[in-house]
Amino acid sequence: MRTSIRGSRRLGALVAVAALTTGLLAGCADDSDNGSSNADGGNAGGKTTLTVGTFGVFGYKQAGLYDAYMKLHPDINIKENVTTRTDVYWPKVLTRLQAGSGTDDVQAIEVGNITEAVQTQADKFVDIGKDVDKSQWLDWKLAQATTKDGKTIGLGTDIGPMAVCYRKDLFQKAGLETDRNKLAAQWKGDWAKYVDLGKEYMKKAPKGTKFVDSAASVYNAALGGESEAYYDKDGNVVWDKSPGVKKAWNVAMSVATSDMSAKLKQFDPTWDQGYANGTFATVACPAWMIGYIEQKSGASGKGKWDVAAAPTAANWGGSFLGVPTASKHQKEAIALAKWLTAPEQQAKVFAKQASFPSTPSAYAGLKPAADTTAYFSGAPITQIFSESAKTIPTQFHGPKDQPILGAITDVGILQVEQKGKSPSQGWDAAAKEIKDVLGQ
């Protein structure tokens, strides 16, 4: 889940996405962070209160998992603390980890932050991998949260296989193909073909609409299909030399310098309003973003949205649940985290909002909610995301993935898209920000 930032839902998603990220690495509701159970003793009416710190829409509350767990464990009370954006959430978590207090009992970690957590914060998390069947998770997903000496600090929630979500009603008005399979064939293999379709859309675009929400979403999606992004396999920082970054940047610039973008910053209120008002026709959507779109577009969007395979298989988003050593209820928190990330529960979250599981044993029985299927025009969501998940390239991550990403999308791309700067000026602005982050 949840923003690109998960998520965003919750990849970037995925996301942006998470979800789909998930994601992405998916964003969601209003911030509701009122501190953790460690600040108030963690007891409510004689029960042990466990706090779960998340960003964006993880779907646990929406799928009824908290209520189900509390029914199974009458002595447990669960409180979820939600922060909309990961770029706000994670610095706050780091501060509390360093202070040794104020953390939540169960703490979500976005894929863009997991390497930093593993390399610099492992001693602040419990080894949650003990006494669990690690074979439940995708090998690469589990490895992302495991230290060199074998300590697992987080259990995988979702991943963010990519698709393209589009408004078929707006496509029809613009005189474009609306069949999901034919669309996927038109842009197969290259995000530049997707951009070319955007140029065609803008020739007859319905009044007040744009082809895509933002250039940043296209950047995230394109980069998610590359094996190398900001770090190479040896852990070296290569953001400025990475062919994958340059390729994604160039396709994003094609969007940012055109008239096809709504120029919205993902997971900001104006982006949510764009969904509600139908102001953009497409969005790169990791699995975790399905629930976000359904929530933000509302009842008026039902049957107007559809889903097609993305130009390239990609991952945007995905998260983990860890238990900080600062938790005063470690035993209970570990049990909750294990239960929430078990295949059965991951399948239930998928059924509610299509956040794609990181546990392969859940795949055969995955079935999205009937309401979700209807909302997205009967699209075979499970099939689309499953096929993407099978061919996602392994991407190497590093401790500063998240701030590097933020510098490129929230500084560099926005300089071009919203302020009219040239692509070279945008790149230079991002580079300056990244060098500050890296202490160069």
Defining key terms:
440 residues; alpha/beta; D-Maltodextrin-Binding Protein, domain 2; 2 domains; 10-stranded mixed β-sheet; 10 strands; globular
CATH topology of the largest domain: D-Maltodextrin-Binding Protein, domain 2
Number of domains: 2
Got a strand count?
A: 10
- How far apart are the termini? 31 Å
What oligomeric assembly is this protein in? single chain
Helicity range: 40-55%
Corresponding CATH architecture of the largest domain: 3-Layer(aba) Sandwich
Instruction: Name the shape in a single word.
Output: globular
Taking Cα atoms only, what radius of gyration do you get, to the nearest Å?
20 Å
Mean pLDDT: 89
Main β-sheet: number of strands, strand sense, barrel status?
Answer: 10 strands, mixed
Helix/sheet category:
alpha/beta
- SSE string: EEHEHEHHEHHHEHHHEHEEHHEHHHH
Name the CATH superfamily assignment of the largest domain: Periplasmic binding protein-like II
Count of runs of 4 or more consecutive helical residues: 17
